[in-house]
Amino acid sequence: MTELPPRNKWTFLLLQLNALLDSGEHLDIAETRGHIQDGTVFGWLRDAFPVPKLDLSPNVPKATNGDGPGSVQDVPIYPFDEMTEVLQRFAGNVDTGVKNNGIALLIAYGLEAIRHDE
Q: pTM for this one?
């Protein structure tokens, strides 16, 4: 099974978070930090924004070699354990300038992850 490059896993998430932010959604920043620290951020996001608002399905189908059997395989897009560890490393160590919205904080941390090729 092929894994996506680090920037792709973050990009798919960030696009969705950006759309939530644009639609006026808000997450308490202290609560967001708490869920990052205790490792429950992705489950919490799933509960707060069910599909179709936010799709955190762990895999996406990807065509690989035509139309025959085996031509589509699931590609893991969200390695939640790895992504949680990255968010936990950034929490408290990276000054994003974000003060009011947990969604904006997650976007900022995701951009930092891309910048550091995490």
A: 0.82
